[in-house]
Write a structure and sequence with these properties.
This protein has 250 residues and is mainly α. It has 10 helices and 4 strands. InterPro entries: HNH_nuc.
Length: 250
């Protein structure tokens, strides 16, 4: 019996799940995979296999020797390219697919017309920000890439190229770093940056040897490598932009 064709909605949900789960959680026993398999009308094993197929398209996965599965379809390849070309539109499409499939499950839903019509711009921004945060933090396994802090309430999906400077890459996870709230602020102000070898660089302009907290919390990381993500590596061109346009040079 031939395998059932994956609809675009189902595939969008799978891509959404791929963006926020670590590679090691792509298995049929994962409660989140079970939940979303039920949502899209697939078995947990089929959804887990779909995620592994998507992983075979991700250079950040394959470059480490992990290959995912080899059964990736031409439609998956096309959707991967669609995602890379316009993260903002793809994030909205993924969120809307989840919303629509959820609505189909909820037969008692009162008004199916309430989707993304009210305050559409604000809703799209919120959805995009949620996608960016979940994609970036999951890539770094919910840890600050500088300090290793793992409290999610104190973590920020920090933009490398500022939100206002590059509209096209606002939701591109390759334009993100998982940082503690403190290091996010320091990065945003240009007190720290990351060099081409993924090492922390601390500006000497605001360094104060008499401030023990600054020394311990920020200056002590100078020259130390950041923890690289499992996927969605920080793009070299974005880091170069930050060093040249945001970082407070010596």
């Amino acid at each position: 019996m031939a395998a059932l064709h994956w609809t675009r909605q189902q595939s969008l949900v799978a891509f959404s799940l791929y963006s926020r789960l670590s590679f090691g959680r792509f298995h049929s026993r994962n409660p989140e995979i079970i939940q979303y398999a039920n949502l899209i009308g697939r078995t947990p094993s089929a959804l887990a296999m779909k995620l592994s197929n998507i992983a075979s398209l991700d250079p950040a996965i394959t470059s480490t020797g992990r290959s995912g599965l080899s059964g990736v379809s031409s439609s998956d390849k096309a959707m991967w390219q669609e995602m890379q070309q316009d993260w903002a539109a793809f994030a909205i499409a993924m969120a809307q697919a989840e919303k629509e499939l959820s609505a189909e499950k909820e037969t008692a839903m009162k008004d199916g017309s309430e989707k993304l019509t009210t305050k559409l711009a604000e809703v799209k921004i919120r959805i995009g920000q949620q996608f960016f945060r979940s994609a970036v933090l999951s890539a770094y396994n919910q840890r600050c890439c500088i300090s290793g802090l793992a409290n999610p309430k104190l973590l920020v999906a920090s933009h490398i190229v500022p939100w206002c400077a590059d509209e096209h890459n606002r939701l591109n996870p390759h334009n993100g770093l998982a940082l503690s709230a403190l290091h996010d602020k320091a990065f945003d102000l240009g007190l720290i940056t990351v060099d081409e070898d993924y090492r922390v660089v601390v500006s000497s302009q605001n360094s104060d040897a008499k401030d023990p907290f600054f020394t311990a919390a920020i200056a002590s990381f100078h020259g130390k490598p950041i923890a690289l993500p499992e996927k969605f590596y920080p793009a070299a061109q974005f880091l170069a932009f930050h060093r040249e346009n945001v970082f407070q040079q010596v």
